[in-house]
Amino acid sequence: MSNGDLDPSGKCALCPRLAAFRNDNRTAWPDWFNAPVPAFGSLNARLLVVGLAPGLRGANQTGRPFTGDYAGDLLYATLARFGFTEGTYGRTADDGLTLRDCRITNAVRCVPPENKPVAAEINVCGSFLEREIAAMSRLAVIVVLGTVAHGATLAALGQRKSAWRFGHGARHELPNGIVLADSYHCSRYNTNTGRLTEDMFHAVFAGVRGLLDSGDSR
Fold it and tell me: Which of 49, 120, 184, 187 has the lowest CB atom count within 10 Å?
């Protein structure tokens, strides 16, 4: 299955508020990507990282998840630290960086106003996440960044949020054999306020690396 089968088109109008905001951004910044941001990385990967939504001046500008803003600086440095990248992250989609055994996506593919998607938008975009997860035949671990990504991923897997409560550093062994690993989102706000430190973020991915290397995952 190709990425084109899994991502909304550039003219997607399923969420009217997001489509209108996207059009406004195209007028304001015509040289930016300003479209639903496709996932990055191979469907053959064992690790999937699920974020919230593209940042206005990050992925919405560059067209690649977590690329061009602080959250991406921390995420890609962490992925490199634990062997999930090749090349050097340069804050642009054409920096030559590739992912190793890892794929990155978002619960909502279009940038939302004030970085806050509403429930209906999360639910609508969940169909793309559901198909994406189903297409990853070797998927063993999903790292979710924040409570929205946690809930959207559980919904895509047909699981109830109340059965698998979010907690930073928590790991949930789901009935289908996939391990769901929780982390606070690597946003500048969370790191500036001390809610998430680099050490806390590294610990999540160190645990994932251990799971994958030990074979204690499918």
Answer: 120
